[in-house]
Amino acid sequence: MNTADKVENREGGLAAVLSQIARALQAEPDVETTLAAIVKATIDHIDGAEHAGISLVERQGKIRTVAPSSESVVEIDQAQYRTGQGPCVDAISEHEIYRTGDLADEDRWPDFTPAAVRAGARSMLSYRLFVTDTTLGALNIYSTRLFAFSKQTELDGRMFATHAAIALVGAQKEAHLHQAIEHRDTIGMAKGILMQRHDIDHARAFSMLVEASQHSNLKLHDIAAWLVEHRHAI
Q1: 178-229 has which fold?
Q2: Where in the numbering of this chain does the ANTAR domain appear (predicted)?
């Protein structure tokens, strides 16, 4: 078998694995389970991966670690967030892939690398997770071995990170949809309570909820949820 055939067979095998992973991720019931499944699949299928975690970008640019495979992942990530340095931080801000050899000899992040080495990391690989122009966060992969990740591993991981980002955004949209339906139902119940108690129509009941929300500086859904929960006591 020549080199071209070997490459073709390898890429075909990787594509099959990625397809299986993508289907499995889409079947997960919620965001948290999807994140945990992404991390597990990363460790199972990325050469050299010993630990992994996902850094999610939240409101106002805050970053937090989710679904870490070990406590050392949390420790290393916190060092990145604290110093503002590291492969994860740069993958998110610079929209690039970052792969290290020996972290102890790494000079790109002088404030971060000593903490990472103390936590046991010697190699890292970080991918920005994104769809279109929206950055979701970063997929971070760790190893205690020197030069654990090859250029080929980096390329394989990029395809994996793409599937992971698509699965994550799908899970987030599903969660937002369920939340919107839940909020709508709660507000509907609260309006029904007010309509019955005060003999008013649904428009006036909704106005009362809005007024209470504005006066209390609470979200409309929170006001409605409080009313539903305490309907027998008021």
Answers
A1: Arc Repressor Mutant, subunit A (1.10.10)
A2: 167-228
